[in-house]
UniProtKB/TrEMBL annotation:
It comes from Isoptericola halotolerans. InterPro entries: Rce1/LyrA-like_dom. Residues 117-213 form the CAAX prenyl protease 2/Lysostaphin resistance protein A-like domain. Keywords: Membrane, Transmembrane, Transmembrane helix. It holds the Pfam family Rce1-like. The chain crosses the membrane at residues 16-34, 54-76, 88-107, 113-130, 151-170, 225-243. This is CAAX prenyl protease 2/Lysostaphin resistance protein A-like domain-containing protein. Signal peptide: none annotated.
C-alpha cells in the first residue's frame, strides 16, 4: 500500500473510488461512441470505414478522458512507472506472447488490407495499447494500492480489465463474450507481468498494441488459438511470483531490528 510519504507528491491522494471513477468514465465514453456508430464487434477489421468508426473513433474519445482525468489527479508518474518490480523472469511469458504476435503477422493473410486500413490499424493499436494499459492497469494500480496488497491489485485490476470486454455480448458476438472475458483475464495477467517485471508501463502498452494489431489485421486466427495457453501461463506465473514476493515481504518484516 502507498504510505503518506509516497503520496505527498500527488495532486490528489489515491483512493479506490477515484480510480474506479476514471475507469467507468472511460468506458462510458468508449461505449457511447460505439452505440452511436452502430458497432458490430465481429466486423471491426472488415474495412476502412469500420476501423475508423469502431476502432479509432472510440479509442480517440477514450484518450481524451484519460488525458484530462490523470492530469487532474496528477497520477501520471506512478501510473507509468512501478518501483515494486517483480523478478525479470516474469517477462518470459510477455516475450513469448510478442513472438506469437509477430509470427501471426508473418504467416497471416492480409490480402484484404488496404494501405488506409494499415494506417488505421496502426493508429488504433497504439491507442488501444496506451488507453487500456493506463486506465485498467497504470492508474488502477495507484488507486488500488491505497487499500490492497499486491495480490489484490493484480486480481482486481486484471478482473476489471477482463470485464470491460463483457459488453461485447450486446455488440455482435453474443455468448462468446463470456469466453472472451476469461481469455482476457489471462492475457491481462501477461500485460501485468510485462509492467511489473520491467518497472515501466510502456512494454505492456507495446505488447498490447502489437497483439491487437496482429489479431485485427489478419484473417487467420493463429494468435487467437494461442491466446488461452498464453493466458494460463500468465496467471500461473503471476500467482507464483506474487506468492514469492509476499513471502519475501513477510520475511523482511520478521527480521529483528538491529
Amino acid at each position: 500500500m502507498y504510505t503518506t510519504s509516497s503520496t505527498t507528491a500527488l495532486r490528489v491522494r489515491p483512493r479506490v473510488w477515484l480510480g474506479l471513477g476514471l475507469f467507468v468514465a472511460y468506458l462510458a465514453v468508449f461505449y457511447a461512441i460505439w452505440i452511436v456508430n452502430g458497432i458490430d464487434y465481429a466486423r471491426v477489421g472488415e474495412s476502412e470505414e469500420t476501423l475508423l468508426r469502431w476502432y479509432v473513433a472510440p479509442l480517440g474519445g477514450g484518450l481524451v478522458v484519460i488525458l484530462v482525468g490523470l492530469s487532474v489527479l496528477g497520477w501520471w508518474r506512478p501510473s507509468l512507472r512501478d518501483t515494486k518490480r517483480l523478478p525479470r523472469s516474469g517477462a518470459v511469458v510477455p516475450v513469448i506472447m510478442a513472438v506469437v504476435a509477430v509470427l501471426n503477422l508473418v504467416f497471416g493473410e492480409f490480402s484484404r488490407v488496404t494501405m488506409t486500413m494499415w494506417i488505421l490499424l496502426v493508429i488504433g493499436s497504439i491507442l488501444v495499447g496506451f488507453n487500456e494499459e493506463v486506465v485498467a492497469r497504470g492508474q488502477l494500480f495507484v488507486a488500488l494500492r491505497s487499500r490492497f496488497g499486491e495480490t489484490g491489485v493484480w486480481f482486481l485490476s486484471t478482473a476489471l480489465f477482463s470485464l470491460l470486454h463483457l459488453p461485447n455480448f450486446f455488440f455482435g458476438i453474443g455468448s462468446l463474450a463470456f469466453l472472451q472475458v476469461v481469455i482476457q483475464f489471462g492475457l491481462g495477467s501477461v500485460y501485468y507481468l510485462a509492467f511489473r517485471s520491467t518497472g515501466s508501463l510502456v512494454p505492456a502498452m507495446l505488447l498490447h498494441g502489437l497483439w491487437d494489431f496482429s489479431t485485427f489485421s489478419s484473417s487467420l486466427p493463429y494468435a487467437g488459438l494461442a491466446a488461452p495457453f498464453l493466458g494460463i501461463a500468465g496467471v500461473v506465473v503471476a500467482v507464483v511470483l506474487l506468492v514469492k514476493e509476499r513471502r519475501r515481504g513477510a520475511g523482511a518484516r520478521s527480521q529483528p531490528i538491529r
